[in-house]
Design goal:
With 307 residues, the protein is an alpha+beta fold. It has helices at residues 2-23, 26-32, 37-40, 42-61, 63-79, 181-186, 196-209, 212-227, 231-244, 251-278, 284-304, and strands at residues 92-99, 103-111, 116-125, 131-143, 146-157, 163-175.
Length: 307
């Protein structure tokens, strides 16, 4: 709630406060004494900077864990009975994930407590995302730092997707899979439930798998986590010229109206650039910060044009 409401609260308070000062001719008095707009707004800008860092800290330290806990509670409510509630170490069903060496894993049942997998299907791709190998196994056990697959069948494919030679069947096979049970358990988290460090590690692993589209989307989300907290201070700068344009009108209602309109366009502009970035038309870093750059530039331009 704090992370989501802070920008709008900063905008509303800025528009109301400076609109009120302008309504009482106090801005004119301060400008006549030689103060610039930035000197008048110094305390508001410092406050906005503090709020921005607080939003960043809360958004990284508390929001992901809160979302994960909320998901656990929802699962408990939906399942109803206590015996079926989500517990630490409980088996994970229908696990799918991207792994290193450009592999895609589908696991029917994975138990972090016993380090075992059941109903395993692994698709290995080349750099053009063509399937070159398919591995099916009934069970996998992690022991002594290695994965052992039981009753495994390995298929090889050519560039046209046709099976090469006869499938290789083995009762037991030691697999070259770098993902440990701990890593697999962590990958069940949704990206929004990860902090920045976890998300960076997740993106690195996915980048090794060749999932370019998913990696691009996650990079946009990652850079957005760095840029979006500064919405609070940027929107304060944007609110200052609008508040001084209200003149002698009813300050309270005007402040609310201006805040809603300005906040809405800021949100729409940010959503548009994020969508463009996820489509691949903009670099992820540029897509995440472009709306903030545009609004910041507009704010500084409007302030420079104030009398």
């Amino acid at each position: 709630m704090f992370v989501q409401v802070s920008p709008f609260a900063c905008l509303l308070s800025t528009v109301y406060t400076f609109g009120r000062l302008n309504h009482n001719n106090e801005i004119i008095a301060m400008r006549s004494s030689g103060l610039s707009i930035y000197e008048i707004a110094r305390n508001a800008l410092i406050f906005g900077l503090v709020i921005s860092f607080a939003v960043f800290w809360v958004g990284d330290r508390f929001v992901p864990s809160s979302l994960a806990e909320n998901q656990k509670i929802k699962v408990q409510i939906e399942q109803g009975s206590a015996k079926n509630r989500l517990k630490l170490g409980q088996a994970i069903t229908n696990l799918s994930m991207y792994g290193l060496k450009n592999r895609l894993f589908f696991i029917n049942r994975f138990s972090p407590e016993t380090n075992t997998m059941e109903g395993i299907t692994i698709l290995e791709h080349d750099r053009h995302q063509n399937i070159v190998k398919k591995i099916i196994a009934t069970k996998g056990v992690y022991k002594d730092g290695l994965w052992r697959f039981y009753q495994s069948i390995t298929y090889g494919f050519d560039q046209n997707g046709q099976v090469i030679d006869e499938p290789l069947y083995l009762d037991e096979e030691i697999m070259d899979i770098p993902e440990t049970p701990k890593i697999m358990a962590s990958l069940r988290q949704k990206p929004e439930q990860m902090d920045i460090h976890q998300l960076e590690d997740y993106i690195w692993r996915l980048s090794k798998s060749g999932a370019t589209g998913i990696v691009r989307n996650l990079k946009v989300d990652l850079y957005q986590r760095f840029c979006s907290p500064f919405t609070s201070i940027i929107i304060i700068l944007l609110g200052i010229p609008f508040s001084l344009m209200m003149r002698k009108r009813a300050t309270g209602m005007s402040a609310i109206g201006v805040s809603i309109v300005v906040g809405f366009f800021y949100y729409v502009l940010d959503a548009i650039f994020l969508a463009i970035g996820k489509s691949g038309l903009l670099m992820p870093s540029l897509a995440a910060c472009l709306s903030h750059i545009v609004v910041l530039s507009t704010s500084l331009y409007l302030i420079s044009k104030l009398p």
